[in-house]
Amino acid sequence: MLSIIFQSLGGLGLFLFGIKIMSEGLQKVAGNKMRQILGIVSNNRLIGCGTGALATCVIQSSSVTTVMLVGFVDAGLISFTQAMGVILGANVGTTITAQLIAFKIQDYALPAIAFGVFLKFFVKRNKSNYFGDVLLGFGLVFFGLSIMKTGFAPLKDDPGFIALFTKFDASDLKGILLCVMVGSVLTMLLQSSSATVGVTMVLASQGLLNLEASVALILGENIGTTITAELASIGASLNAHRTARAHTLFNVIGVSLIIIIFPLFIHMVEWVTSSLMFIGPPDITLNGEYVNISRYIANSHTIFNIVNAMFFLMVLPYLVKLAILLTPQSQEEKDIDNLRKIKFLDSRYIETPSVALSQARSEVIRMGESVLLMYDDIIKALKTYNIKDLSKWKKQEDAIDNLQKEITRFLIKIMQNSFIPEQSKEVASLMRMTNNLERIGDAIENIAQLGEELAEQNLKLSAGGIHDYEIISDEVRKFINLVMDYMRRNDHDIMSNADKIENTINQMREEMRSNNHMRLQSGICTVDPGLMLMDMLTAFEKIGDYCYNIAEALAGIK
Questions:
Q1: What secondary structure letter does DSSP report for 436?
Q2: Model's pTM, two decimal places?
Q3: Terminal Cα-to-Cα distance of the chain (whole angstroms)
Q4: DSSP structure string for 301-325
Q5: What is the dihedral of CA 249, 252, 257, 259, to 10 degrees?
Q6: Model confidence pLDDT, tens digit, residues 319-329
Q7: Do residues 279 and 296 touch, judged by C-beta distance below 8 A?
Q8: What's the CA angle centered on 340, arms 417 and 362, to 5 degrees?
Q9: How far is CA 324 from CA 63, 81, 178, 197, 552, in A?
Q10: Statement to judge: residues 400 and 262 lie in one domain
Q11: What does the pLDDT look like over 384-433, one tens digit per residue?
Q12: Residue that is last in its domain, among 265, 300, 326
């Protein structure tokens, strides 16, 4: 029994290790190219599906493809709808692993390992090393399968194990659901659908599982593999969550539909394998091994994913709607989404500079209001040491960066047309305001990060530090509010008020730095919070400088 356990688990370990090495090697060889292809995927769902299938065939991991897509959607490189077509293709592409396993090329495992090690360790070129990884992984996959078969072989004559595996009887709905559940859990635990397929084929080849039970386990594997994308979406954007949710829906709904017509599906698999591929019946044995059943299992995996993809390609818009319905947008996410969207800029008016400049001015004001909102959120969160509220800054800052890019792009287009000198001056003024508003966002980000460090390390500012922090933060807010008020009124007579507040903030910073030094020297304040307060004071002073730059742009001084 100990030998059976060691051989079975050791073989599984080699199989998983081989899959990992082979996948990583293939990613090194072709991964950058695949990322480029996935990054420019078409809106056409058929092309997207084909792209996903090709990418997954090449890098040998639907999980890697899906996680990449979740990352692309999170970064805004592709849309949620575009990702859907690619994921459908990724599920088809991953079936190539099962087809390779079904070829039974274990005899080539050790030569592949030997040649792979030679390329990896004795050839100095990177590309050869990567091909060495692919061959080494390929060999380990089949060597692991061979060891698993040897380990499982004695079980087919053991009455206890025969009794255990007879429970995996997919002749009725209860048995089918049991197999699907076991396949799902096993895939979630192993984090590899290919490993589940491999184990299922080995058990079936030893006669421990019949075709129906094996196919039901494979259906469960399709559900279990969705856990990787779900985990990858944690902490990501709303659309990344929706991408992972749609991937789960695609597999769960597809498996549910196949369960309803399970006997018909088994007949389809048998017909395709025996009539079209001329493979003998699945119950033929040779030297005590069921030699054909692996091909039937591999075909069931491929047919399921092809049929599923074809069905969902036809109803893809409804799948997207269902994923959106199941992943509703919170008010905070709606606010961020609205912030990211351009509200006033319209390229149709580029050739009418007076109208285009009015639109740009309105968008700059909206950007300024967003910066003020971000500032208020962070200052409020810092006063309560609320890490959850502090975490808002990242999405807000990203949205502000996006606004800066769009406004700058729009202003550059205006500059490329002919306009009068006054309009040229206004373009330069708006450009300067936009850049300084983005810099204020960066400074607020620095304050938020310092606040997160304080909260995470459970550090507190001294009473004097809190007092200074509250005073300077109120004065800086007054400055942001001042420039926003003048921007809304398009009032250029701002400099006297700007000079006064700018000088006040600079004086405050110097006095507060001295106060902080005194508290550090006297031991009233500990070192870490004291240094963080110094950095915060610097950030507040920078925000004052950026507000002063905006005031100068408004006044037409620079």
A1: H
A2: 0.61
A3: 84
A4: HHHHHHHHHHHHHHTHHHHHHHHHH
A5: 180
A6: 888 888 887 76
A7: yes
A8: 50
A9: 22, 11, 30, 31, 46
A10: no
A11: 666 555 556 677 777 788 888 888 888 888 887 766 677 778 888 899 99
A12: 326
